[in-house]
Amino acid sequence: MPDIDDATIAASFPHKPVTVIPPAATAGLPVPDAWQGVVAAAGGAARAEATRSLWPTAMLHLIPKFAQVLTDRLIDVRLVSIEGDLALAYLVDDTSAGRVVTWIGYDPATFGTPPPFWEVFPEQLTAFLQGVHAGFTSQDTYSFGVTRPRYMATIADTANSPEGIPFWDEIQPYPSTRLLQISAQGPGMLYCLSPDLPAEHLAIADEVEIEVVEFWPAIDDLLMDRFLAQDYGSEG
Question: CA-to-CA distance for 136 and 30, rounded, in angstroms?
Fold first, then answer.
């Protein structure tokens, strides 16, 4: 597959301006030490291999389907700037749809203050967010992965109802003030953690229903669901 041009990478994230940083322009930038091998690698295959080594083996065992994607279909990784922060853009082959799908993995130095209910985050996820990527998303800034901790908020706060969403709290078993959105499958399906859920579980919620599921299988499926989603700007 030919190299992916910078404009194609930038266009895959239409909500935020993305600037691809060529290897020759990295001098003086605060590139994380762990990413130096990615930046210094020659060619897409070498950058992909260096990036795979960043992911903890224990976490990859928990998301086996996406781990296989990183092994078989990750064709390149490029250093980018998004919202003024450094990130890695993952370029993944989606041959069946005739396209390349991208994920953005943010600099762990941008983690900031722990989000609400940090104590109930699965251990492997906290290690990933603090040590590998402080957010890993595709298509927009919150879907098909795990959003940036700085953007995580309860669904009540997101709805500008910090005291609770009345129509939700009247019918659902988990209060809107205690459901922290950590990801989504587009705008209509929210993935939430809560101290009211069993350990290593999350709630998948839409406007009327909520389902409690095991955390890691749900995240693995969510990552894979990106391949079923249309790109922004496509027909249909």
Answer: 19
Measured CA to CA in angstroms, residue 168 lies from 10, 159, 163, 171, 205 at distances of 37, 11, 12, 6, 11
HSE-up of residue 123 (Cα within 13 Å, Cβ side): 1
Sign of the Cα torsion 213, 111, 9, 92 reads: negative
Could you read off the pLDDT of 97-144 as tens digits, one per residue? 888 899 999 999 999 999 999 999 999 999 999 999 999 999 888 899
Distances (CA, A) of 200 to 8, 120, 124, 141, 197: 37, 8, 10, 24, 8
CA–CA separation, 166 and 201 (whole Å): 25
Helix ranges, 164-203 (H): 166-169
Q: Exposed, middle or buried by CB within 10 Å (0-12, 13-18, 19+), for 8?
A: middle
